[in-house]
Amino acid sequence: MADIRIESVACIGGIVADRKARVTEKLHPGSSNPVNMSSCPGGVVSNIARNLGKLGCTASLFSAVGRDAAGEQVLRDLASPDLDLSGVSHIAGRPTASYTAVLDENGQLFIGLADMAIFDELDVEWADRVTTAIGKHRFWILDANLPAATIERILNAKTSETTVLVDPISVAKAARVRNAMHKIDVFFPNAKEAAVLSGRSVATAEDVVEAAAQIRRSGVGTVVVTLAEDGIYVDDGARGKFMPAIPAQRVLDVTGAGDALVAGYAYAVIANERHEPALWGLAAASLAVETEESIAPNLNRESVLARIESSTGKSART
Question: Domain of 66?
């Protein structure tokens, strides 16, 4: 299949100045720990958009940054022919959002520190201003960095021709999508977020199945529950199934895996790839954890296909 440039996806949510502090020795809570620090542009939909660009799609980003040096730097770093930034608002009096991830010696997230107050400015009036531009796209990807009323306002503008994918981001923000669940075609909660939205404890495989079913009963088309190293559970209404993670060659940093999974899944839907979208998502996530960067440098359609082939033992080439 030739390199696609078939769709421009609307990516709606957070642009964030990401900082990672990875300890260089065993982590000791409550004490000073030596770390290696790095910084790059981030935010869930921002990372998804960049992943989509590497896979062959273009994206339009709808978000906000502050009128500050951090915002200017993030936009410079995001600049790409594959990414339209004209939908990004510049807001005075609020700092550009930031997220600091502290990673343990195994690359696992120990704690995340988020300053996202700027997104409170993206209210329903902002939603009304950007709805026309967003509506020009057939595929929307949205994260829960936006206020609940804004999410509801945007998703209420969805038409029957629009496919909407949503990442609830965190336990604290997952409830923001509750009033618009019936507008979501594909939803990507982790187990803790699924627990919040289903109203039930999620501790066992059976709990995951029941939580996904409960979320679907709220109107969601397909629920993809992400289970970290255990893979995912997919419930599309026809049948539910657990799918194992595709092994990585090595695990350096897990923080970009979820964004890569959503992007891989979305790409497969947009490009109408032969192999199921969940496999594309798992393969993209497998590549993402092999790098300390937010976006895997070697991510492209061919590398994801190769990872699918290695996991299934079948040719994935078209």
Answer: 8-312
